[in-house]
Amino acid sequence: MIKVSVIGAGTMGSGIAQIAATKGHKVCLYDTFDGAIENAQKKLNKILNRLIEKERITKEEKENILNKISFTKDIREIKGSKLVIEAIIENLDLKKKLFKTIEDLVDADCIIASNTSSLSIASISGACEKAERVIGVHFFNPAPLMPLVEIIPSVQTSKKTMDHAKSIIDSWGKITVIAKDTPGFIVNRVARPFYGEAIRIYEEGIADFATIDWSLKELGGFRMGPFELMDYIGNDINYTVTETVFTAFYYDSRYKPSFTQRRMMEAGYLGRKSGRGYYDYSKDMPKANQDRNLGKKILWRILSMLINEAADALFLNIATKGDIDLAMTKGVNYPKGLLSWADEIGINNVLEELKKLQEEYGEDRYRPSPLIKRMVKDNATFY
Ligand code: NAD
Fold first, then answer.
1. Domains of the chain listed by start with CATH number
2. What does the pLDDT look like over 116-131, one tens digit per residue?
3. In principle, which of 7, 97, 212, 357 could form an S-S bond with 86, CB 3.0–4.6 Å?
4. pLDDT in tens, 285-331
5. Ligand 1 center to residue 87 CA distance, Å?
6. Residue from 14, 89, 119, 152 whose mutation best tests the ligand 1 pocket (most atoms within 8 A of CB)
7. Rounded Cα distance, 351 and 380, in Å
C-alpha cells in the first residue's frame, strides 16, 4: 500500500484523508494554520464515532483508521509519499508555491494532484519541474459519501500519471470520469443552468422559489430543487463558482451570474448555514403553486438548457458521453444522465425549446449547441 499525503485539513482534505486511511493507506494529513489540524482530528473522531453508532464500522476499525493517519504541521513528513493530494484554499499563487515545495520533498515517481474546483491544472502544473506528474483529482463534498471523482489531466500530464492516478482512485471504490482541463470540468460546467435558468425564471416573475423547486422535484425527479440546493451549498460558494466559470469562459453569456444571487450573498443570506437564504429556515416553508402545466413549462425550460450544456460539452470533447452522464448522476445526484434523458424526450423537442427561447429573448445564452442541430438534421440519438 502506497503512502498518501493530503495537504490542507479542511472540509475536503480531511474527507480525502479519511477515505485513504479507510482503504488501508498510511496517510499524512498536513495543514499549516493554527487549530486546523486539531479541528480535523476532532471532526474525524466525531464522524468515525457516528459510523460506529450506525454499525458501519467497529471500534477496532476506527482505531485502525486513526492509527493510519499522521496529523502534522511539518510538511517534511510527506516524504516517501507516492500520491500527494492538495486541498488548500482556492488560490493559484498559494497552490503554485506549495506544489514547488511538494516537488522538492517527494520522490520522482510521486503523483502530485490538486482537488481544485476552478483553477486550471495547467497553471498549477507550471510550478513543477516534472509537470507530467501533476493532475487534477476533483472530489465532491462530502468526499467520503459522494461516489464521483473527476480526473483532469492537463496538457502536461503524462498518460502514465493519468492511468496510475485513476487506478488508485478506482481502487478506493470511487467512480472516476476523465475531464478536459477546462473551466468547471464536467459537473460545475454542465450544472450551471440548473441554478442560472431557475433564477432567471424567478426574476421574470414566472414562479416563486417554492414552485420552481416543486416542479424540478415532483415532475423532474430531482432530489432537491435549485433554490433548496443553492441554500444547501451556500449562496456565497455557489455564486463564486458561477462567477469564476463565467470569467474563465471569457464572459460567455450562457454562464452569466445573477443579481438575485449576488444580493443574497451580499445580504448574508447564505442559505442553511446562516439560517436564511432563498428560504427563511426559522419559519415554515412556503407552499408551492402545484399547477402541473406551469411546473412542466419550468422543468422543460431548465432541462432543455441542461441538455444543451451537456451536448455542448460532448461537442467540445470535454468528456465522453458516458462520462458526462455518469458525472451528473454520481456527482450531483441527477435522476438520469442528461444525454440519455435527451434521447428519451427527443433531441428535436429540445432544439425546438431552445430556438423558441432564443427567438423570444434574442440572447446568445439560449443558442443551441451545433451538435444538437446536427443531430436533428441527421435524425440521430446519443446512444
Ligand atoms: P477549507 O477552507 O475547508 O480548507 C482549506 C484548508 O487549507 C484549511 O484548513 C487551511 O488551513 C488550509 N491551508 C490554507 N493554505 C494552506 C497552505 N499554504 N498549506 C497548508 N494548508 C493550507 O476548503 P475546502 O472546502 O476543503 O476546499 C479545499 C479545495 O478543494 C479548494 O481548492 C476547493 O476549490 C476544492 N473543493 C471544494 C469543495 C467543497 O465543496 N468545499 C468541493 C470540491 C473541491
1. 3-178 (3.40.50.720), 188-378 (1.10.1040.50)
2. 998 999 999 999 999 9
3. 7
4. 999 999 999 999 999 999 999 999 999 999 999 999 999 999 999 99
5. 5
6. 89
7. 13
